[in-house]
């Protein structure tokens, strides 16, 4: 559906220079899949998601859609976003029915009675009583507000939804409900998701493939099953170890040092300052994301050079 080619998004920081929030990222999002995008806060996940919607303008690279170049209006119909914070992403002065129906009016998809019928359908799809249309966001719980945000995203009948940390601001008891709703909507409507999160537990539940991001770069990419069973990068291991598990005791992987500044990232491999396997060459060679095993990609010169001895590195 979407091919992201060498995408870079950079921002000027007054007095500090330039931040390359997304740096030369290449990815494919396949029709009908959920692609998980994980990493620590500040690694560039949200910036990449917003660049797909052109909310952040790329500094370099290309976004190639199936069907050719997309006009602004066509893009708005084809891709929508679910925002992280259900408290700040809804206008508190608008009624729920107007919020859900806003894309219908803005994109000229329906008006009058047709729009009213469509709003009722959307609210029912996300598990909200249509009789609540006249209510305001302040009268709703966080989980209900996020359902409103999901209904609004569905209004334009999009093919791709960028879900930016859609459960991060919700109580744990509500998170599973929202994940199950997203999965049901994907099955019922044939949706494609880019699911952005720092919670690998949620990503492994929902995603078909997972891309791991560190300081603006993709450092590992594999199916959710492969990534959970056999991560190649120590950074991915550390993220997985932070996920509580009833199946086995969590291996405590401790990363050395602090997260480097994105204004002045390390030379060569950006992860080398925290990597237990770093060697001198890591400082001078910038690793490329390449296939190490069938369907499993990683950006590490040691793993790519020492494939016969890979067990020693990933054990």
Compact overview of the structure:
By secondary structure, this protein is of the alpha/beta class.
What do you see in this structure?
With 315 residues, this protein is α/β, with parallel strands linked by helices. The protein has a single domain (2-236), classed as Rossmann fold (3-Layer(aba) Sandwich). Helices cover 32% and strands 23% of the residues. The chain has helices at 45-52, 72-78, 96-106, 112-125, 142-154, 172-189, 200-206, 224-229, 234-241, 301-305, 310-314, and strands at 2-13, 17-29, 34-38, 60-65, 79-82, 160-164, 192-197, 209-214, 217-223, 290-293, 296-298. The strands form 2 sheets. It has an 8-stranded mixed beta sheet with strand order 5-6-7-3-8-9-11-10, sandwiched between helices. A 3-stranded antiparallel beta sheet has the order 2-1-4. The longest helix has 18 residues, at 172-189. The protein is elongated, with a radius of gyration of 21 Å. The protein starts with a strand and ends with a helix. The model has no long low-confidence stretch (mean pLDDT 89).
CATH fold annotation: Rossmann fold
Number of helices: 11
Any idea what the radius of gyration is? 21 Å
CATH homologous superfamily caption: P-loop containing nucleotide triphosphate hydrolases
Quickly list its features.
three-stranded antiparallel sheet; 315 residues; 23% strand; 11 helices; eight-stranded mixed sheet; Rossmann fold
């Amino acid at each position: 559906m979407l091919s992201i080619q060498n995408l870079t998004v950079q921002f000027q920081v007054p007095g500090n220079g330039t931040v390359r929030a997304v740096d030369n990222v290449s990815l494919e999002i396949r029709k009908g899949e959920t692609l998980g995008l994980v990493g620590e806060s500040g690694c560039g996940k949200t910036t990449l998601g917003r660049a797909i919607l052109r909310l952040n303008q790329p500094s370099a690279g290309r976004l190639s859609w199936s069907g050719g170049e997309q006009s602004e209006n066509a893009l708005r119909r084809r891709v929508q976003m679910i925002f992280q914070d259900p408290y700040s992403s809804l206008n508190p002065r608008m009624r729920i029915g107007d919020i859900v129906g806003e894309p219908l009016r803005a994109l000229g998809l329906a008006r009058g009675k047709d729009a009213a019928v469509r709003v009722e359908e959307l609210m029912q799809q996300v598990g909200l009583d249509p009789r609540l249309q006249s209510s305001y966001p302040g009268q709703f719980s966080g989980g209900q507000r996020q359902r409103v945000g999901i209904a609004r995203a569905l209004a334009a009948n999009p093919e791709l939804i960028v879900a930016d940390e859609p459960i991060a601001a919700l109580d744990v008891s509500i998170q599973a409900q929202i994940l199950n709703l997203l999965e049901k909507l994907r099955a019922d409507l044939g949706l494609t998701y880019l699911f952005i999160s720092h919670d690998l537990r949620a990503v492994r539940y929902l995603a078909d493939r997972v891309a791991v991001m560190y300081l603006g770069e993709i450092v590992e990419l594999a199916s959710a099953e492969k990534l959970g069973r056999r991560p190649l990068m120590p950074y991915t291991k550390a993220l997985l170890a932070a996920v509580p598990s009833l199946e086995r005791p969590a291996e405590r992987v401790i990363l050395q040092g602090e997260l480097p500044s994105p204004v002045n990232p390390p030379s060569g491999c950006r992860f080398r300052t925290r990597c237990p396997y770093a060697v001198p060459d890591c400082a001078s060679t910038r690793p490329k994301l390449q296939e190490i095993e069938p369907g499993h990609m990683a950006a590490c010169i040691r793993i790519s050079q020492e494939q016969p001895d890979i067990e020693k590195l990933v054990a």
